[in-house]
Amino acid sequence: VKSFEIKAAVTAPTKGKEQQVLGMPTLIPVPRSNNINIMLKRFPVSANEIVRAIATGDPNGDLSLERLAVLLQCEPSDEEISIMRHFTGDTSTLTSSERFLFDLANIEHCADKITALVYARQFPELIKEVYAGLSAYDKAITQIQQSSGLHRVLDGVLRVGNFLNQGSRGAAKGITPDS
């Protein structure tokens, strides 16, 4: 019976002083708060530094691609943003996870900024892939241009085409191998 009472007290949607005294979140659900706290503990930098890096869009900061992907999963929902932006109480009473979401919610276009940081981190690798693809095309073009066998085949095809084209139009040549 006591475990049920404890569970009921934890999951009850009351937002009174009991939850604040126990350090329980009042603005977001407990599981969400726990997930955010776990995520924050994995970062080698403080929550304030994470918020600063997102707000400034610092692509060279301490936020790796993997950490940014985790942040995308933990970014505040539209409902949470609305709740945080309408919060008028003392921010010192918020739990660390609520304070983190509060700070993120007050960054304009937070999700877009995190996504932009992800792209900024991916950009060098994407450029390498593009250059590798362009290099492959460049090699293929060079091989085509230097292939004497292909030139002979195309020359023969063009000669046949020009021969067939001579009919009633008076010996009109369509294309020469040099064009």
Structural overview:
The protein has 179 residues and is mainly alpha-helical. It has a domain at 2-122. It is 68% helix and 0% strand. It is built from nine helices and no strands. The protein has helices at residues 2-11, 17-22, 30-42, 47-56, 65-74, 78-85, 96-105, 110-146, 148-165. Helix 4 runs parallel beside helix 7 and helix 6 packs across helix 7 (96-105). Residues 1-22 have low confidence and may be disordered. This is FH2 domain-containing protein. Residues 1-179 form the FH2 domain. It comes from Ostreococcus mediterraneus.
Can I get a quick summary?
The protein has helices at 2-11, 17-22, 30-42, 47-56, 65-74, 78-85, 96-105, 110-146, 148-165. The chain has 179 residues and is an all-alpha fold. It has a domain at 2-122.
Topology overview:
Elements: H1 2-11, H2 17-22, H3 30-42, H4 47-56, H5 65-74, H6 78-85, H7 96-105, H8 110-146, H9 148-165
Helix pairs in contact: 3-7, 4-7, 5-8, 6-7
Organism: Ostreococcus mediterraneus
Protein name: FH2 domain-containing protein
Pfam family, one: FH2
